[in-house]
Amino acid sequence: MTYEGAHDLGQVRQLWQLLEPVHALVYFAPESYEEAGALGYATDDRWPMYFAFRAAPLGPADAELVNALFYSFSPRMVRHYADRSWQSAPPARVLAARAAATDRSLRAALGERADSPELAEAAALARRAAEAAVTAGRPLAAANAALPWPEAPHTVLWHAATILREHRGDGHLVALQAHHLDPVESLVLHAGAGAAPAEAFESRQWSAGEWHLAHRRLAARNLLTDEGAATDAGMAVRTAVEKLTDELAASPWSALSGQEAARLADLLLPPVLDVVATGLLPSQSTLGIGMKYDYADSDSDS
Question: Residues near 155 by Cβ (< 8 Å), separated by ≥ 6?
Answer without folding.
Answer: 99, 102, 103, 106
